[in-house]
Amino acid sequence: MDLSIVVPTYNEAPNIAELVTRVASATSGIRAEVVFVDDSTDGTADEIRRVAAEAVIPVRLIHRDIPTGGLGGAVMVGFDAAASDICIVMDGDLQHPPEDIPRLWRRYVVGDVDVVVASRYSGEGTNGGLAGASRIAVSKSATLLTKAMFPGRLKGVTDPMTGFFLIDRRLLDLSTLKPRGFKILLEILARTNLRVAEVPFDFADRNAGESKASFRQG
Ligand SMILES: Nc1nc2c(ncn2[C@@H]2O[C@H](COP(=O)(O)OP(=O)(O)OP(=O)(O)O)[C@@H](O)[C@H]2O)c(=O)[nH]1
Ligand SMILES: [Mg+2]
């Protein structure tokens, strides 16, 4: 396996089939698997099992009955379970276009970085999928605040709170990370000295289902 794509899900049933289809076509030529780490209370786990049975790439499901650490905790479980050391984290609602996976992968295989961040705020990247002026304001001010707090570790990183990134998990000490909810990448970058590159991407609208991001998370 070249690449494990870790997808945390909380009630994303209507998005699973399209996500897997688009990931499978985007990764042709790369040996890739999808690892769903699911904390859902709806039928998402059953839908993942159904889609996995028909998928042309390996699709695995880890369903947690006790969702320790929320979204961030789910991502850590995915890193631990991944078949490849090289992992891409992406959302399950198609806001992170699977078609961008090869761009992250190609940047990584150049060989000079440990992390590739898909940024809404660098170069041609956009944040159109952030619903409403207040979400945009929260996202931008949280980014400025965190960059002020960690000027060294976040140097050159325009979007430390993106949920779309590639990482070599061998560089992480999973036992020292303490993710709480959203923004696992910030936790990783602040605690670990890593070489980072960015690629711009267009943050799309949520495909279906409901947002779990709250003002409190911001
Ligand atoms: N496993 C797990 N996944 C979660 C949890 N909370 C959110 N997620 C997933 O994390 C991803 C990001 O959550 P979203 O609700 O899309 O957050 P967002 O993109 O900031 O918000 P929207 O723009 O409204 O979509 C999605 O795939 C969610 O299903 C959780 O507690 N556990
Ligand atoms: Mg989303």
Question: Would you write up a description of this structure?
Answer:
The structure is a single chain. By secondary structure, this protein is α/β, with parallel strands linked by helices. The protein has a single domain (3-200), classed as Spore Coat Polysaccharide Biosynthesis Protein SpsA, Chain A (Alpha-Beta Complex). The chain has helices at residues 16-26, 44-54, 70-81, 101-109, 133-149, 184-191; strands at residues 3-9, 32-38, 59-63, 86-89, 115-119, 165-168, 196-200. A seven-stranded mixed sheet has the order 3-2-1-4-6-5-7. Magnesium ion is lined by residues 91, 93, 95, 206.
In short:
With 218 residues, this protein is α/β, with parallel strands linked by helices. It has a single domain (3-200), classed as Spore Coat Polysaccharide Biosynthesis Protein SpsA, Chain A, CATH 3.90.550.10.
Indicate the CATH topology. Answer: Spore Coat Polysaccharide Biosynthesis Protein SpsA, Chain A
Distance between the termini: 35 Å
Helices, by number, come to 6
Give the neighbour order of strands across the main sheet: 3-2-1-4-6-5-7
> Can you write the helix and strand succession as a string?
EHEHEHEHEHEHE
Give me the Rg, rounded: 16 Å
Share of β-strand residues: 15-25%
